[in-house]
Amino acid sequence: MTTRRELEHRLAELCTPPQGHPTWEAFMRLAMVEAAKAEALGEVPVGAVLVAPDGAISGTGCNRTITDRDPTAHAEILALREAARTLGNHRVEDAVLVVTLEPCLMCVGAMVHARIRGVVFGAADPKTGAVVSRMRGLELDFHNHALWHTGGVLAEECSEQLSAFFRRRRAEQDRLKRKE
Q1: What Enzyme Commission number(s) apply to this enzyme (predicted)?
Q2: Domains identified in the chain, total number
């Protein structure tokens, strides 16, 4: 029988980047670059990178819901799609998704079905976050796959990237209203 200490040690191993590879903070900075790409398109700046077990990036994505006219074109979904195409398999087992904002319920479902190992997120999402904020979507008992999660990696920087975008958007809307 496995002891609690052994389980905690195994979880700590799973939550650590592959040996000899960058930290989760370094991968989060890559996700923030993806988020900046979304912002350049006029999209909410959320970015994601999928990290393979060897530390290689197997997929990237940035929000493109408006650009692609696709409500499912969240950064996480696009990173999973790219990785699946790259790997030639709808399962991207053992990969870790690093994303700047806590995933929504749709993205949680996609991560479960893709069989990834875990998810690392930056800023919590108190409105629609489905990992820890609004619900614990990864802990639903009917899922046929479990994955670990850790949040708060570069949370302040990720949060500021989003907040600055919305401040600029509100200022632009105010400017347009004053012109009318």
Answers
A1: 3.5.4.33
A2: 1
- 74 assigned to a ligand binding site: yes
- Which active-site residues does the annotation give? 76
Where residue 112 sits, what CATH number does that domain have? Answer: 3.40.140.10
**Domain span at 39:** 4-178
Is 158 within any annotated ligand binding site?
A: no
Gap between the Cα atoms of 142 and 63, Å rounded: 28
Using a 10 angstrom Cβ sphere, with 0-12 exposed, 13-18 middle and 19 or more buried, the burial of residue 99 is buried
Given this model, what pLDDT does residue 128 score? 96
pTM for this one? 0.86
Mind listing the pLDDT tens digit for each residue in 45-69?
999 999 998 889 999 999 999 999 9
**pLDDT tens-place string over residues 103-126:** 999 999 999 999 999 999 999 999
Phi then psi for residue 91, to 5 deg, are -95, 130
Helix runs in the chain, H state only: 4-14, 24-40, 75-87, 105-114, 155-179
| Residue 15 marked in a binding site | no
